[in-house]
Amino acid sequence: MKLKDFYYDLPQELIAQDPLEKRSDSRLMVVGRSDGSITHRHFYDLPDYLRAGDCLVINDTKVIPARLMGVKEDTGASIEVLLLKRREEKLWETLVRPGKKARPGARIIFGDGLLVGEVTDIVEEGNRLIRFTYDGIWEELLDRLGQMPLPPYITHQLKDRNRYQTVYAAHEGSAAAPTAGLHFTEELLEKLRDMGVVIAKVTLHVGLGTFRPVKTENILEHHMHSEFYMVEEAEAARINAARAEGRRIISVGTTSTRTLESVADENGTVRAGSGWTDIFIYPGYRFKAVDGLITNFHLPESTLLMLVSAFSSREKILQAYEIAVEEKYRFFSFGDAMLLI
Fold this sequence. Notes:
Blueprint: E1 27-31, E2 38-42, E3 55-59, E4 61-63, E5 67-72, E6 78-86, E7 91-97, E8 107-110, E9 115-122, E10 128-134, H1 138-145, E11 171-174, H2 186-194, E12 198-204, E13 227-231, H3 233-244, E14 249-252, H4 253-263, E15 273-277, E16 292-296, H5 303-311, H6 314-326, E17 337-340
Helix pairs in contact: 5-6
């Protein structure tokens, strides 16, 4: 399977730069998995497509302000550090720009010395391990010095950092938002609960690897990044009860989907626990735990588009994307949504 098989042409002006004033006002393209039928609605119409007993699985990860701007101690040169993965309490795997100025032993000063980082090693893909020293509470310091790590295709300044969080974000650890969840409001979630939809939570801390392009022409040669997940016993029980009773499991986003498919056995039974997953889902994959999918519109030739294509078919999804371009849907993180059911 070739990378070019997942290409589509997207005008730059359709890349959403800002969130809508109200989350659930985004458009919703409803795509029939079996027949490829397409209906144009809004996200607040989602209850029309769910029914009592459906189990909606959301990712309750919380984005940390992982972008730090500092200076190199000896030269004063500007350095940008993106926190990717916590290895130990004060040791992080990071992405540093420019990397050539961050060799082992280099010290980086943030916030006039409130935070100091020392590069200890260079690891896979050129990422840097940085050991931080500071006084006080890490989370408070990060909140004070850090910025939201918006994707590279968003060039506008985010006025309210909470708009790059879901309303149900709980467990800190993501370097990027699980964007399919950004469309939900508290009111919409309450309406779904009132109609009998069961809401279950999983956690997958989204890494910046989600934005890394696939560089191999044969997609099977692509090395997927790993991300940390958690599924609690009570949440697994909710999902498994729905499965046992023949009720639908509707996954909110590719992150929830990857989590469920990582922890499900061949019968779709979900195991509670935590760990790291590097599951790569592309056409030909047999889904074990997911019956429906809510997702955004993804980058051309991305692993996310490959996952969505696997859930329906590559041809139907690319046709849907072509229609979305014609109808001027908004694309990517702050863009519109698709329901595959």
